[in-house]
Amino acid sequence: MRILIIGATGTIGKAIVTSLQGKHEVLQASRQGSHFSVDLTDPASIQALIEQVGVLNAIVPAAGETRLKPLADLTDQDFEFCLGSKLMGQVNLIRYGLQALTDNGCITLTSGVLSQKPIPGGSAVSLTNAGLEGFVRAAALEAPRGIRINVVSPPWVNETLLSLGMPLGNGLPAATVAQAYVHSLEGTMTGEVLYP
């Protein structure tokens, strides 16, 4: 397969690239440091990327930023940031990416554990992740030409917990999380939320 990974320089993105290389043709995109550049907050940037890469069998965004803050401290701008980056960035990848996908292609988005297991300070993230999961379930019903749409909901990733100085209790290694994306890409399911 010819697979576009967005967020390829991030912790999960790098693990996905590693798990797919050698089996598939992997195109890497991110804001910086990759062969292809994209800004998920900018629809024109997403459209330009899709035009640049050409025909694809799969698209995997492992990108999108959010903000952790107490609810009382969240501003309109914080919500706009989370929704514009992680939610609408990935929604727009589906909207514009469908045209680049071959018949029976696949798009696998990224939500996260806070959609199901919220934490204090995570309400904007929970909103974004739950929105993505609901969108995937609905969008999969309308995807044309046998295209499948799924979303992976990663737990905390060990590498991220270590960088934040947090205990590893509920985390998984990025390499383990990456296998859920491989399962989505190489499987047959659609409209599913996959939990590594």
List the topology elements.
Blueprint (H helix, E strand, L loop, with lengths): L1 E5 L4 H10 L4 E6 L5 E2 L5 H11 L2 E6 L14 H22 L3 E10 L12 H20 L5 E5 L5 H6 L10 H13 L6 E2 L2
Parallel strand pairs: 1-2, 1-4, 2-3, 4-5, 5-6, 6-7
Helix pairs in contact: 1-6, 2-3, 3-4
**Biggest β-sheet, characterized?**
7 strands, parallel
The strand count comes to 7
Structural class: alpha/beta
Low-confidence stretches: none
Q: Kindly state the mean pLDDT as a whole number? A: 95
- What is the assembly state of the chains in this entry? single chain
Give the fraction of residues assigned to helices: 40-55%
What's the overall geometry?
globular
Beta-strand residue fraction: 15-25%
Characteristic terms for this protein:
globular, 6 helices, seven-stranded parallel β-sheet, 196 residues, alpha/beta, single chain, 7 strands
Structural write-up:
With about 200 residues, the chain is α/β, with parallel strands linked by helices. The protein is built from six helices and seven strands. The protein starts with a strand and ends with a strand. About 40% of the residues lie in helices and about 20% in strands. The model has no long low-confidence stretch (mean pLDDT about 95). The chain is globular, with a radius of gyration of 16 Å. The longest helix has 22 residues. A seven-stranded parallel beta sheet has the order 3-2-1-4-5-6-7, with helices on both faces.
Give a quick summary of the entry.
The protein is α/β, with parallel strands linked by helices and 196 residues long.
